[in-house]
What we know:
Chain A is about 10% helix and about 35% strand. With about 80 residues, chain A is mainly beta. Chain C has helices at about 35-45, 65-70, 80-90, 105-110, 110-120, 160-165, 170-175, 190-210, 235-245; strands spanning about 10-15, 55, 70-75, 95-100, 125-130, 135, 140, 180-185, 215-220, 250.
Amino acid sequence: xxxxxxxxxxxxxxxxxxxxxxxxxxxxxxxxxxxxxxxxxxxxxxxxxxxxxxxxxxxxxxxxxxxxxxxxxxxxxxxxx
Amino acid sequence: xxxxxxxxxxxxxxxxxxxxxxxxxxxxxxxxxxxxxxxxxxxxxxxxxxxxxxxxxxxxxxxxxxxxxxxxxxxxxxxxxxxxxxxxxxxxxxxxxxxxxxxxxxxxxxxxxxxxxxxxxxxxxxxxxxxxxxxxxxxxxxxxxxxxxxxxxxxxxxxxxxxxxxxxxxxxxxxxxxxxxxxxxxxxxxxxxxxxxxxxxxxxxxxxxxxxxxxxxxxxxxxxxxxxxxxxxxxxxxxxxxxxxxxxxxxxxxxxxxxxxxxxxxxxxxxxxxxxxxxxxxxxxxxxxxxxxxxxxxxxxxxxxxxxxxxxxxxxxxxxxxxxxxxxxxxxxxxxxxxxxxxxxxxxxxxxxxxxxxx
Amino acid sequence: xxxxxxxxxxxxxxxxxxxxxxxxxxxxxxxxxxxxxxxxxxxxxxxxxxxxxxxxxxxxxxxxxxxxxxxxxxxxxxxxxxxxxxxxxxxxxxxxxxxxxxxxxxxxxxxxxxxxxxxxxxxxxxxxxxxxxxxxxxxxxxxxxxxxxxxxxxxxxxxxxxxxxxxxxxxxxxxxxxxxxxxxxxxxxxxxxxxxxxxxxxxxxxxxxxxxxxxxxxxxxxxxxxxxxxxxxxxxxxxxxxxxxxxxxxxxx
Lengths: 81, 359, 253
């Protein structure tokens, strides 16, 4: 069974600069970030974005490694969960 | 200004202002206090700032900040307070911030501090030791010039006799020649342009324009001090050409020795006197040359024997080097200790000459 | 790097702060200092102070901002930044001078300097990044380490009988008339980050405007120094650190 989720925004993530601190996971208000299984070149896991971003910027605000750019959609987008 | 009878501290203050000093910070301690007070009186009307800092550490760090922002800045104290300033003097030598430090010392016991420094790292501190107020006036302005020329902290070895003696002097601005602009000085104006400035002992630079890093930076600075050592030695000597005995002294002790040597000459004794004006760089070859016909060198200093190390290095073991002075706090203005008079010095020298002054 | 969005969208937040040259640094995962850096740079940019700002930076992991930000910087001796900043500001009163220092730099080594600068009402801002340890030297106790905190030099936890009590620098500064604005913030969650940015911006605005000395203490995470997993850093601030160092505006508005 597939769900659709409305995303009001999205982020780009510098997965190579990420040091795997996971502060963004806790900070994300809609809870759409989760840590990867894969690791980057430095050996850290990094966040992956699921649908449902609200462009609240909390991830970008808490990230100590400046990994996030945040975008807000002009029209919310329905995505498959 | 026409010559006037000025107290040494006041003359030095006027001279600093004539050199363009616009920031002074200090903490009271005799015999430096009069210089701080003179600056407190004169700076505001000269458009500058004089801060009565809450400690010597704060004073020298304020001065470092002012110097980093491009101002001609100075501080001072006596030996104990200069001791507190050592970290910052070393820091400025290694991040190339110019300023002047006036050690109005309590006598001559701070020679090691002045020439060996008590800070950290590989650095040297140029030090001028005036013999009287008139020379102190000239040295004050020369120090600001040399500080800017070499981008380094520099010091004056003054004392109570410099600070408190009245002398008829004229204080005029002295032109020592052109200097490069201080485009390294921090003023905030290049923020956001990609060319913002940085003053950092580690010289790491910016992420997109890395600096040399501490090793290369400090190697270059060591080279700068070598260059200074070669170019900035200053000294004065009298009747050394045929002297059998050369007496070395520095600062305000020197006029006493000049008097003693003059009296000995009148009696037919072949004596000469040599005075390093720069304590660092010490004029080694000039001293060796002055003593080339001598069979002994006497060292008069008002301490337990500090400059004598540099004299021995200069003479290289060729002839005996004998201490003539002793510890005395008399030159401090503290009204403690036995007064060292010309008579005492003359008798001491005569005793040594009679003994053959064997070390 | 993940890719840019395919739907029409506006960028509402950049990764790097204004005036920031690079996001690459060697600070630990989960460190709070880089968040504080961003707030300072945003404040400088939003207040239009780029061409006036001079940062005087003490010794700590945070010193790396000197390489990462495109403004004039003077890196100075441990504890002495408020005195150095005084000299800068007095000879260049038109500049916006601020210090960035850690709790070791301010509360331990430099307590005299910050209190005297505040007492004199110097028109500068001191930002004290408080993580309760000397992080750069490996995590020793500072004058701001809290009771019970384990550090390399208080391995059984800070014990008042042996080590005394932490020094609340913001409260001391606020007691001095020369200090016109004093606040304590934190960077452990988005809400506190937003408040702390307002504190920093207000502090810069007032000192650059010539009103007097301003001070913002910012509680930052140091999971390495705290012997904690990185994800637990924010909770340590909320549940332990803030009990000793309450956040809020202490003086002025």
